[in-house]
Amino acid sequence: MHESDGFRPRFETLEGPAPDLLLEEHEGLLRVLPTPSPFGMPRRWRRPPAVRLARGAWVRWQINHRFAHPCDGSWTYRLDTLNIAHGPAPSHLFLSPPPHHVDERAPLR
């Protein structure tokens, strides 16, 4: 959301891997691990382990970042909520509570 458009939520649906997401399939399980931006704060020295999903399962992963402007110190906030399914998924799948939820939101100083 951006202040310039009245904080209207934006949604994006992708098929295939996103650039900031590690996905590996091994023996029928999908290993999921988001990669935090190296430019965002706070630094995450300890991270939750990757989630392994069986076919048909899904996970909701939330992670936040603060980005500071190098010239004036102003900053922006970003919250990513990733809903990731292994295999084909019906359109209403992500409307229910997730079977796996990883909350990696951190306090931003």
Mean pLDDT over the full residue set: 84
Give Rg in angstroms.
16 Å
The string of secondary-structure elements, in order, is: EEEEEE
- What is the total number of structural domains? 1
The helix content is under 10%
Number of helices: 0
How is the biggest beta sheet arranged?
A: 3 strands, antiparallel
Percentage of residues in strands: 35-45%
| N→C terminal distance | 20 Å
Q: How are the strands of the largest sheet arranged?
A: 1-2-3
Number of strands: 6
Note the overall shape: globular
**Ranges with pLDDT <50 over ≥5 residues?**
none
Which structural class should the secondary elements be placed in?
mainly beta
Identify the notable features of this structure and list them briefly.
0% helix, 39% strand, mainly beta, 6 strands, three-stranded antiparallel β-sheet, three-stranded mixed β-sheet, 109 residues, globular
Structure explained in plain terms:
This protein is mostly beta strands and 109 residues long. It has one domain. Helix content is 0%, strand content 39%. It is built from no helices and six strands. It has strands at 21-26, 29-34, 51-53, 58-68, 75-85, 100-104. The strands form two sheets. It has a three-stranded antiparallel sheet with strand order 1-2-3, with no helix packed on it. Strands 5-4-6 form a three-stranded mixed sheet, with no helix packed on it. The relative contact order is 0.22. The mean pLDDT is 84.
